[in-house]
Amino acid sequence: MKWASLIGITAVAILIVLFEWSRINKNLKKEKWIVVIITMSGWILAILLVFFSDIPGPADLINMIFKPLGKFLLNPID
After folding, report:
1. Cβ–Cβ < 8 Å for 21, 28
2. Average pLDDT, stretch 8-22?
3. CA distance 15 to 32
4. Residue 15 confidence class, pLDDT cut points 50, 70, 90
5. Are the beta carbons of 50 and 9 closer than 8 angstroms?
6. Model pTM?
7. Are the CB atoms for 24 and 33 separated by under 8 Å?
8. How far is CA 42 from the centre of its chain?
9. 55: helix, coil or strand?
10. How far is residue 14 from each of residues 19, 34, 36, 50, measured CA to CA in Å?
11. Which has the closest alpha carbon to 44: 36, 54, 34?
12. How far are the Cα atoms of 17, 21, 35, 39, 51 from residue 2, in angstroms, in the given order?
């Protein structure tokens, strides 16, 4: 089932690039590269989430960074 998801995600990413590619002017090469890079980043993230669904999300990272700060602010040093 994971391989079907992989094929579906890849197909959607290719359709997004083809749709956006045709709408961007031929002279705007940097913009075309940006579309490819952003779409590939999303594709990689989607594939990682399919195969490794227990990856911590962005909220977990923020909690890890600010949780000690919150504990310090709630219990100041006497």
Report:
1. no
2. 93
3. 14
4. very high
5. yes
6. 0.70
7. no
8. 4
9. coil
10. 9, 14, 9, 18
11. 36
12. 23, 28, 26, 20, 7
- Three-state secondary structure along 22-47? HHCCCCCHHHHHHHHHHHHHHHHHHH
Are the C-beta atoms of residues 35 and 20 closer than 8 Å to each other?
Answer: yes
Residue whose tokens read 């940006």: 34
- Residue 35 · residue 21 · CB < 8 Å: yes
Tens digit of each residue's pLDDT (9 = 90 or more) over 21-73? 888 888 898 999 999 999 999 999 999 989 988 888 888 889 988 888 888 88
Residue 28's region, left for phi above 0, alpha for psi from -120 to 50, else beta, is: beta
Q: Using CA atoms, how far apart are residues 51 and 55, in angstroms rounded to an integer?
A: 10
Tokens representing 20? 């956006």
